[in-house]
């Protein structure tokens, strides 16, 4: 089985990947919905998914950073995997505080005292769940550097925005899944332009705006 098929299969089993006529949080309609957080409910699946990601990573780091609450389990698992791959380093697992919005509307990330003190002087890889733009990862990288750490790589469980290492200002970018913006299976539409609505398909799911969870429409 190709890696992408294997990953989709695991995500479907976890309920992280839903196929069906769905209304997204933005109000747009799609035929697919990915909530990577759900994979973290299943330790065995998380281990397999992060294992597939870690196979690509050849860089030595002294710590992995993940954003709380969405990416902490992924970070922890990746730190464990990279420790197994390299006898020299035993990477730490470090977590940022949840993402906030700054006054200019950009994502803002920071670390509490335990983690900011620990980050100073470390060589770090950062993991994010799903990237549709580079904004959150850039905020993660900046916050990590502000603590005195070097950031050598970034990793996405799913890179949905064609995001590149160059764009992020890191040496390497790794992605478990790469879904191009042009991928027909992953396009979304305004309700009045939705081809599934035009075919008379009823909405099956919608994303609850208050908590981001998928509920029957
Ligand atoms: Zn529709």
Give the fraction of residues assigned to helices: 25-40%
Classify the beta-strand content into a percent band.
25-35%
By CATH, the topology of the largest domain is Rossmann fold
| Averaged pLDDT | 93
Strand order of the largest sheet: 10-2-1-11-12
Please work out how many helical segments DSSP would assign: 7
Straight-line N-to-C gap: 33 Å
CATH class of the largest domain: Alpha Beta
CATH architectural label of the largest domain: 3-Layer(aba) Sandwich
The biggest beta sheet is recorded as: 5 strands, mixed
Structural class: alpha/beta
What characteristic shape results from the CA principal axes?
Answer: globular
Low-confidence stretches: none
Number of domain modules: 2
Oligomer: single chain
Briefly summarize what is shown.
The protein is of the alpha/beta class and 217 residues long. The chain has seven helices and twelve strands.
